[in-house]
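Section 5.1 Outputs to date
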Amino acid sequence: MDRVRIAAHAKINLLLRILAREAPAGYHQIETAFTLLELADELVATRTAGGGVVLSVHGPDLGPPEQNLAVRGARAVLEATGHKFGVALELTKRIPVRSGLGGGSSDAAAALHAVNALAGNVVPRHELLHFATRLGADATFFASGAPTALAWGRGERLFRVPAPPAAPALIGLALPPVAVATPDAYGWWDEMHPDPALRGPLLLDVDAFAGWGSIGRLGGNDFEIPVFGKHPPLRALYERLAGTHPYWVRLCGSGSAVAAVYANERLRDDATMQLGEKQQRLIGTTTRAVEAPGPEPLP
């Protein structure tokens, strides 16, 4: 194949607990559960005669290409396969940046699979997962293809669980926009917990993920208190979404998006009408209950 297309899906964290802070490096051990959304970026990868990776983006400015996770993912596969060809990446951004929806990590995982397809899938799946872990903790989940998984460590230790039924979801982003960098969110949590006690993981039954009612009882997101404290508009957005009677509502990762899941499309659409877009930007989507598809060939 000389040209492929792949969707890079967004995610939400069904729960997120910070278990410990590693000394002296300062990294954090977490426990979380990911599930995919239909909301997705699109990545087209084209084999080129020249070496290296070039990137074009349809959407917001993502900064220097050298720092882009999709570029780094493509380079990892090219290096593993002996730099026998180059790659042109065309990325269409639909996932809001710095929102906690995992767009950059998902783009990286998509690039790993896309470039490996161009190379004839010579890199084994377990090596792709290893590359993903080096790119970012969330990237491991996206590279796995699982629609839902529990994760520990820095997010790279995965245990696949049956996905809950696909359900209508609403993503809210505050207006004017609020950007939350993950290192800042961890720093705010550290300020609130200068000497944190060690916490163990939850004892979770797989059946807890069978329905959205039980998922809502699993626990919260440890970033909500520090992030909402620093950004009151995000707390207000959370409260507005919670007032629309969803099954479940949480801050997405370390922010800045807030996600709500509803029993049916009518309730989600009613919430959209009720909230309007004067104080927030709203994106209607659906959770995924099936595995993310791989690269498809293009003419």
